[in-house]
Each structure stands twice: as structure tokens, then as C-alpha cells.
Design a protein that fits this description.
Layout (H helix, E strand, L loop, with lengths): L16 H11 L1 E13 L2 E5 L5 E6 L2 E11 L10 E4 L2 E13 L2 E13 L8
Amino acid sequence: MALTKKSATTIPHGLGTTEVTAAITATGMATITSAEVGAELTVNVFAKDQTGEHVAHLFGDTKHTLKLDGHASALTVPSLGTEVTFAGRESVITKASITAANEDFVKASLSGEGYVSTGTGNYA
């Protein structure tokens, strides 16, 4: 009996080579073993009228988050403020740590965030 594909949907597997190469170049890491990309609204509030009904809802700009784990190429912490583009989103490294042990390669963990304006108003 032959196996057949039930769907034409392609599920991505692992990390894309182009993104990993660019992130390694930007951060100075030797390898990236996992990546986590997220997004959240910076403001999410609503207003009620005197009867308790929702009359307005305000959303703020989108904040993108990035976390990269892997192996460091040196025992130095990558520079904070480094810009990294990963999964089509630009982030700035805001947190970095290096873990070294005698039994394993030097591990690195980087976290970053970036903001995208969703507003259409005039900003000074």
C-alpha cells in the first residue's frame, strides 16, 4: 500500500537557512538551535458607557518579540542594541546571556523586541 499526501498544505520545518545566516552574522553567534518569534499589542483597552456597554476599543502599536538560543562563538556577550531581522521582523537585542560549562559548548541566549506603528496620524 502506497502512502498518499492528503493535503497540498506545506508545513514549515525547522529554521530557514537565509534567516539563520543573517541572524548569526548580526549577533556573532556560532549556531542557532531555536528561535521564538511573537507579537502583541502594546495597548489594548476599552471604554464603557454609564450602562456598562462597550463603546470604544483602542489598540496600540504592535510589539514584536524575538528569542534566539544557540551556541556562542566566544565567551563575550553579544552587544545590546544590535539590530536583527528574523522572520521578516526587525528587532533590537535587549537582553543577552552566555552560559559556559566544562561538559558542553558555550551557550548563548538573546532576546529582542521591535515596534511597528499601526497608526496613520501625523507624528512630530
